[in-house]
Specification:
By secondary structure, the protein is of the alpha+beta class. It folds into two domains: 36-119 and 261-337, 3-Layer(aba) Sandwich (D-Maltodextrin-Binding Protein, domain 2); 121-252, Glycine betaine-binding periplasmic protein, domain 2 (D-Maltodextrin-Binding Protein, domain 2, 3-Layer(aba) Sandwich), CATH 3.40.190.100. It is built from 15 helices and eleven strands. It has helices at 2-32, 46-63, 74-83, 98-106, 128-132, 178-189, 204-217, 230-234, 247-252, 269-274, 276-284, 289-302, 306-316, 318-321, 327-337, and strands at 38-42, 67-71, 88-93, 110-117, 121-127, 160-161, 164-171, 196-199, 223-227, 237-239, 263-268. The strands form four sheets. Strands 3-11-4 form a three-stranded antiparallel beta sheet, sandwiched between helices.
């Protein structure tokens, strides 16, 4: 009888240990499937890089993953996302790369996890003082009738290109960004290529600096920009009106306003299967344009880099990000922030 009891106890013990080993194995497999760092698309603008480092800090400190950031621009990094060289892109501006995005989704190469922030904006603009003046700074309006793209041909001399005085200068976005191609098509469709040269700044910082420099001097400036950014949170700029967005026009000539832009979190499809816990986290990750402007303004005011801005965000808005992760993960992240 004693032997039978011992044998039964041994069987139960062995079964329990086997079950425990299986559970532990399943838990470990969630991360064991990735015997490498998680790779983020480190796009060339601050908001994307801040989001990378917010998510990266949570994944490192809360989940125990290693992370890497691969720098680059829109087109090559999205190609890398499709191939699997990149695992996560925290800011895919869907309408700006709609064709590539839809093909990748249809082919099952990438998975869209939803909005990072739903209220973004992009378009063409000038300093408000160009149109209305600024009495406090002693600036008189120099283009009081400037409202839409139709008015731009007669005002090209205000925005004279210092390298080619026979035309005005339009500050476009960065070479390699999808909006570079879009702006080129827009300029041609509106007939503005006859009056303006397209200037491509070497970086997002250079584009912002051109606007800020002109603004501080009270000079005219005409170009492309987007929100959320600290620049548009700080400077008083007025958008140039375009015809309302029309899908047929957009798909042919681009001669209309930029569409309402979805800024979504997109991951490589194979990676999504390998790291379902990360996918669940990123599905809940969402912010707003106003919140992004605050983070970017903090960077500008304090002269800090994206890593420090991410830490500031995590310390300042725990009520937001703790809702993205399980409680045990949140506790680990909070402990790492102390």
């Amino acid at each position: 009888m004693m032997r039978r009891r011992k044998r039964a106890a041994g069987i139960r013990w062995g079964w329990m240990m086997g079950l425990l080993a299986m559970v532990l194995s399943m838990a470990v497999c969630a991360q064991a499937g990735l015997n490498r760092p998680i790779v983020f698309a480190d796009l060339g603008w601050d908001s994307a890089q801040v989001h990378n480092r917010i998510a990266g800090f949570i994944l490192e400190k809360g989940y125990g993953y290693k992370v890497e950031y691969t720098p680059g621009e829109t087109i090559p990094l999205f190609a890398g996302l499709k191939r699997g060289d990149i695992d996560i892109n925290m800011e895919v501006w869907v309408e700006n790369q709609r064709e590539a995005y839809e093909k990748a989704i249809a082919a099952g190469q990438v998975i869209d996890l939803g909005s990072n922030y739903p209220d973004s904006w992009q378009g063409w603009l000038v300093p408000t003082y160009v149109i209305k003046g600024d009495p406090a700074r002693g600036i008189k309006p120099v283009a009081p009738d400037l409202k839409s793209v139709k008015d731009l041909p007669r005002y090209w001399k205000l925005f004279k290109d210092p390298e080619d005085p026979k035309k005005g200068r339009f500050y476009s976005c960065i070479a390699g960004w999808e909006c570079q191609k879009i702006n080129e098509k827009k300029m041609k469709a509106y007939g503005l290529d006859k009056y303006y040269n397209i200037f491509l700044p070497g970086s997002g910082a250079a584009l912002a600096a051109s606007m800020v420099s002109a603004y501080e001097k009270g000079q005219p400036w005409f170009g492309y920009y987007w929100a959320p950014t600290w620049v548009l949170g700080k400077l008083d700029m007025t958008p140039i009106e375009e015809p309302p967005f029309d899908r047929k026009v957009w798909d042919t000539t681009k001669a209309c306003a930029y569409p309402s832009v979805r800024v979504n979190i997109v991951v490589n499809a194979k990676f999504a299967k390998e790291a379902p816990d990360v996918v669940q986290f990123l599905k809940k990750y969402e912010t707003t344009q106003a919140l992004n402007n605050k983070v970017l303004a903090y960077m500008q005011e304090k002269k800090v880099k994206t890593d420090a801005a991410a830490i500031w965000f995590l310390k300042t808005y725990p009520e937001l990000w703790t809702g993205w992760v399980p409680s045990e993960v949140a506790q680990k992240v909070k402990a790492a922030l102390k």
